[in-house]
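Sequence, please.
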């Protein structure tokens, strides 16, 4: 098996160590993925393109967390 990036390993770990229930496993994996795509706090955003790019990443992260919360509520 090849070495995984830290981001991919975090998602795999979330899957492997998540609770047995399908909804909670999916939620744990989505949360782990959301944490890996987060824009670091304090990241300088100097151009309009960078501001828009970072906003898009935050939007994707928010969407993953929303789906995870819905799955956890099941």
């Amino acid at each position: 098996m090849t070495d995984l990036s830290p981001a991919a390993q975090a998602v795999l770990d979330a899957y492997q160590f998540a609770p047995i229930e399908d909804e909670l496993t999916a939620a744990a994996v989505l949360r782990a993925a959301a944490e890996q795509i987060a824009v670091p706090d304090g990241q300088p955003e100097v151009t309009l393109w960078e501001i828009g790019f970072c906003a898009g990443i935050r939007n994707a992260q928010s969407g993953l967390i929303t789906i995870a919360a819905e799955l956890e509520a099941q």
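Residues 6-72 form one domain.
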